[in-house]
Amino acid sequence: MAKRVVLLGGGVGGSMVSNQMARQLKSEILAGEVEITVINESDEHVYQPYFLYMAFDQAVPADAKRSERLVLHHLVKLVVGQADRVDCEQSAVLMADGSKIAYDFLVIATGSRPAPETVPGLVEGGHIFYTEEGALKLRDALHDFKGGRVVITVGVPHKCPVAPVEFTLMVRDWLNTHGMEDSEVLYTYPIGRLHSLEPVANWAVKVFEDRNIQSRTFFNAESVDPQKQTVTSLEGDTVKYDLLVAIPPHTGQEVIKRSEFGDAGGWIPTNRHSLQMEGHDNIYVLGDATNLPISKAGSTAHFEADVVASNLVSRLRGGLGSVRYDGKVFCFIETGNDEATYIKFDYQNPPRPQTPSELIHLYKLAFNKMYWLSAAGIL
Amino acid sequence: MESDIKIIDARGSFCPGPLMELIKGIRQEPVGTVLEIWSSDRGSAKDIPEWVARAGHELVANIEENNIFKVQVKRLK
Q1: What pTM, to 2 d.p., does this model score?
Q2: Where in chain A is the domain with CATH 3.50.50.60?
């Protein structure tokens, strides 16, 4: 009987793991010894970094989407449907339609979900750009904006940790080039500096000063008053806004909560090196779904996918699967003015930001096109 | 040490970092919960208590063990 590998989630992590495995296990799959199945809620694969560009009308939804079937290797099976929960006793994913998909190895790559509803008033009074719908609504609001105070808030936890800084620099650029140089941009941040990464925070101090961006730290948005157009932090500060752009707190997915796998936020306890779910030898977790204290970002899922795919291939071929994840993360940072920089770090080594340049910006734009090769398990 | 303390292992976390991990933990746990954050960053021994004071929670303990900084915080509201 074939060994069954099931991947719950067809985003960055699930697609990369399945495609890398299919390339390496082609003969075993063709011989009927291994079966790889991806479960995804839709047949669309969405490249989420484009949402930032959509907000500034620099991309449209079609740029960010491909058919998941076309992203996956032809030897990978795709089941489009909603998973109700994972049943470890039966080693099976129970689907909402009543069907059951059994596994020998399970890879959980369900990602995270922006949860603006957890901040009272935010849905009614603010904008987000972490979803397609939100990015398009913000694009329209920016298009119609006549000037005033733009306030950016950052919820905890959130994915893509450099996006708030990128948005701030890009919105300043947008205002300047649309005749609103006098409009104020106020960036707020939950901790006592401008970014969790200290070198990025230090770099941002100078850049914000140069570009006339105001900032306020120790600001965790707790509620929004859409009528008064104010946002209040749990630290007790209240600020007025004309346009509120929030990076909302995120939560784990409902299927994780229904499976009773996660902590109170729906994040799955995961071994930081093996990426196995704590207490479960045959379940791996990667990407935003883990409870690991690292960036929730596509690049994190990418580097974790290399480890998970390698270890599963090893174990399916009789090995022990001993490759360890070292916490590696790599992020581009768009800095406005057609420039960008990047950071990389791991559990042992802090990041060292590079001087922004046009070349890195162009590489980021090129990567946006090359992403599909990464998802295919090639790049 | 109390057995119902929620441990958050944020050693080696440069991003989001120990303080953000603590804020995440406090947001998702009920009032009265004691959380203990582990950090390999010396700065945590200073910046976590600073935020705890501003946010109106209680600093229960702040100790160093073998270069690991352990800060206990009780959610008060």
Answers
A1: 0.94
A2: 3-111+253-328, 115-249
